[in-house]
């Protein structure tokens, strides 16, 4: 998720103090004829990549490789750097490009096709590139979250759909992120595009603005400062009981609650969601191509997929991977998220964001 997820809910993990893996391993040896094969795999990623050290160590011991993680800011910034260094990449594998940026990555030709072992176990709905230039790794849903206590106290039913958000009873309650500067903000814009189409989303945002939507730069400010339902928002005395975040946010509030609550203090408006899918790919010109392929195999292995939810707060894409109990107990399954085809996003993203900015921000 891009993340920027946040992927996927991964930004939420960082914001609540989850430790992230920095980098490990020594440099690899040369690749010229007669020299030893490189033993280091460099994974270039956004800042929210995380894995349990023991799970990564098990891969390293079985494969004989050492993994070095090169974190490079948010997903958009990280992708920009790989496009700029096309053909002479900083690493072997890139993780973190999502479906909002996928066509840009593919059009710039930064990946070498590789069909990962285990890809047959990945849901077909996540396999958006039939040429296997990228491998699906996780999914997450950008959704409006609500403060349960606020709506119980006011005796108002929390909103459930995009249509609900423009009703008078929800005036001045919603905070969202800027679609030009934030992954969840862009995802929420795309949810409206998916729901109302290219001819209707502007009218929707006109009504949402008239209903008092607040726009802030990023997720951290929206969720941990302005939203009244999160632990951070309570401390900051946030007064907006609706926020654009992730479907995985309520389980995180439980996991890191002090004391841990029996029930999540926040809920998810399931009819407001946009589905993000995050991918990894073998970088063209990788110094350790074989190691990169092995790492891609590992990213869709059941062991990594089942470790991932509590490390990056995203959902597995492998069909038989099990979710942790805290996800199944306190999370929600989004049955019908809004989606927009990657080629449509690539064709229209800039003009959509520009039009949105003129309409909502200025």
Task: Give the SSE map.
Layout: E1 3-6, H1 10-15, E2 40-45, H2 53-63, E3 66-71, H3 75-84, E4 93-98, H4 102-107, E5 111-112, E6 135-147, H5 148-154, E7 174-177, H6 183-196, H7 201-210, E8 214-216, H8 219-226, H9 231-235, E9 242-246, H10 249-255, E10 266-283, H11 289-299, H12 302-307, H13 309-312, E11 315-316, H14 325-330, H15 342-361
Parallel strand pairs: 2-3, 2-4, 7-8, 7-9
Antiparallel strand pairs: 4-10, 5-10, 6-9, 6-10, 6-11
Helix pairs in contact: 7-15
- Can you tell me the residue ranges where pLDDT is under 50 for at least 5 consecutive residues? 1-33
What is the SS-derived class? alpha/beta
**Strand proportion:** 15-25%
> What sequence of helices (H) and strands (E) makes up the elements?
EHEHEHEHEEHEHHEHHEHEHHHEHH
Helix content, binned percent: 25-40%
Separation, N- and C-terminal Cα atoms: 28 Å
Number of strands: 11
User: Tell me, what's the shape?
Assistant: globular
Give a short account of the largest sheet. Answer: 10 strands, mixed
What is the count of helical runs? 15
Would you tell me the overall average pLDDT?
Answer: 89
CA-atom Rg in angstroms: 20 Å
Summarize the model shown.
Helices cover 36% and strands 19% of the residues. With 362 residues, it is α/β, with parallel strands linked by helices. Strands 2, 3, 4, 5, 6, 7, 8, 9, 10 and 11 form a ten-stranded mixed sheet that branches.
Report on the structure:
It is built from 15 helices and 11 strands. It has helices spanning 10-15, 53-63, 75-84, 102-107, 148-154, 183-196, 201-210, 219-226, 231-235, 249-255, 289-299, 302-307, 309-312, 325-330, 342-361; strands spanning 3-6, 40-45, 66-71, 93-98, 111-112, 135-147, 174-177, 214-216, 242-246, 266-283, 315-316. Strands 2, 3, 4, 5, 6, 7, 8, 9, 10 and 11 form a 10-stranded mixed sheet that branches. Helix 7 packs parallel to helix 15. The chain starts with a strand and ends with a helix. Mean pLDDT is 89; it is low at 1-33.
